[in-house]
Design a protein that fits this description.
6 helices; single chain; 4-stranded parallel sheet; alpha/beta; Rossmann fold; 47% helix
């Protein structure tokens, strides 16, 4: 099964995966990939553009390979704001789309506490894109920040 975990920055997407994925599952998370590809002491968020570009290429390769093995394992993919094209691809693979959203006020508070100010723009864009849609309830509380 393919699980596509979406939501604004600092919403708790990684925490949701940690509470659902099993050790044999594949987790594709750009932040985790970037940390794996950078040197000791690299930040877990707020990556430099060149490191993020390399990690993004690795992420695309991981997605392509993982989609070929959905009959053998579960894949958890973090995709903050999937495009219509990406959503169509995920739906062809019968993905379950999971929206993690503890609410805009909480997200902005978390971003101010631990993320780059640029993430505020990403979160604002995420919330604007969702205006007019019913808000899904988050299936569980995320970790305490």
């Amino acid at each position: 099964m393919l699980y596509v975990i979406t939501g604004p920055p600092a919403a708790g997407k990684s925490s949701w995966i940690e509470s659902h994925a099993k050790p044999q599952d594949i987790v594709i998370d750009l932040d985790r990939i970037t940390v794996a590809l950078t040197g000791p002491g690299a930040p877990h968020w707020n990556h430099a553009p060149l490191q993020q570009r390399v990690a993004q290429r690795a992420r695309y390769a991981a997605i392509d390979e993982a989609l070929q093995h959905l009959h053998q394992l579960d894949v958890y993919l973090i995709h903050t704001m999937p495009s219509p094209k990406a959503l169509a691809k995920y739906k062809r693979h019968k993905a379950r789309i999971v929206v993690v959203d503890p609410g805009e006020a909480i997200v902005m508070q978390r971003i101010q506490a631990m993320r780059s100010p640029a993430m505020e723009r990403v979160a604002t864009r995420w919330y604007r894109a969702r205006q007019g849609r019913p808000r899904e309830a988050m299936p569980q509380a995320s970790r305490s920040w």
